[in-house]
Design a protein that fits this description.
By secondary structure, this protein is α/β, with parallel strands linked by helices. The protein has helices at residues 39-45, 74-89, 108-117, 131-135, 147-159; strands at 2-4, 17-18, 25-26, 29-32, 49-53, 67-71, 95-99, 123-127, 170-172.
Amino acid sequence: MTALRSSAPIPPASPAVMQAGSADPRRLVVVGASGNVGTSAVAWMLDAVDAGSWRTDVLGPLPVPDVLVAGVPLQAMTRAKNALLLLSRLGVRPVLVVVNDGHGRPPADSSALLILLRPLAREVAQIPYVPAWRACTSPGGLTPPTGPALQAVNRLRAVFGLAPVPSPKRTRR
């Protein structure tokens, strides 16, 4: 029987990621299109700033994200659409990360909307459902990704030129 050793941390994003068109290094900014979509987990995976949820109902400046995180349900995808439309008017095209929140296929209307949103995003990344992540309440408690989740996280990290997450070492018991 093999067990996964979860001691391998996800490597940090240093050296700092450069903002497009800027000579000043800075960390990536991750914003959720709505709450409870995995924004903190994605920020942790990218060693990025977690700027919380995109809130247009609160007065004040909105964060300009490098990464916009959305859930699969239609309501979450609709909030992502609204954020991407506003950002596109400002000339900003963040990476859209869609975090799957359950087993099975996404609803057809969400999949159709995602196709329409692709031109508004710099890139679209999909993170598959990981049951242990769904139950986790703090990004510090996340287990390193494995299998399809590891591949998706490494593709996302490659978009920003970040080092890949190493595969967890297997040990025999």
